[in-house]
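Appendix B. One record, verbatim.
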Amino acid sequence: MIKVCALSSLDDRKPFAATVDDVDVVLVRDGERVHALADLCSHAAVSLSEGDVSRKGIECWLHGSCFDLETGKPSSPPATEPVDVYAVDIRDGDVFVDVTVTTN
């Protein structure tokens, strides 16, 4: 697990781009939970951190594919492949991510 940022530096339901061990990751805070996904749309290879977060998940800004924050699975086309979801731990107000452990 690598410390990425303080929990207080994340705005609720706003994408936050980070690099963890040379892996581009997008963090999304949802209350006291934080989700970490690969910051690359599986359809168009563009950054998900530039998209919006809705109740359905994080939406790719280019073609509108939406990815579930917990599973990484797309819920709308044109994407058909999931994105990686990484293990997150919050300790002492800091967010830690492990890009070697995918949860999907």
